[in-house]
Fold this sequence. Notes:
The structure is a homodimer. Helices cover 28% and strands 39% of the residues of chain A. By secondary structure, the first copy, chain A, is an alpha+beta fold. Chains A, B: It is an enzyme of class 6 (ligase).
Amino acid sequence: xxxxxxxxxxxxxxxxxxxxxxxxxxxxxxxxxxxxxxxxxxxxxxxxxxxxxxxxxxxxxxxxxxxxxxxxxx
Amino acid sequence: xxxxxxxxxxxxxxxxxxxxxxxxxxxxxxxxxxxxxxxxxxxxxxxxxxxxxxxxxxxxxxxxxxxxxxxxxx
Lengths: 74, 74
């Protein structure tokens, strides 16, 4: 099965990539953009979803600075 | 509204982060993991979704090496 993990900077943690995009958009002519946050998209083929939570905690996300969510997508 | 953009390496494009995670998981005791792909999660607050496609094409994704999809999430 395919699992999708979304990893984001925790609220209050500096997100320099998001800031850079937020500043670049108006320079390209895009207006009306508020907050921008950039994280990671991780897609895995796994035999079972049982260990995905452990993979997130131990490797895929940094629990100090990041939050994550995951779902089975197919 | 909040828009979520998922950006992935195109099929056939080298994904060194995904390879690194795929190799690290068995070393941590996680088995049964096949392909791993790592991309970017971008979440934006926008006034209208009209310009999101243009933002993806012009800034958020590299059309040579990456594919993207987006959706309004709230």
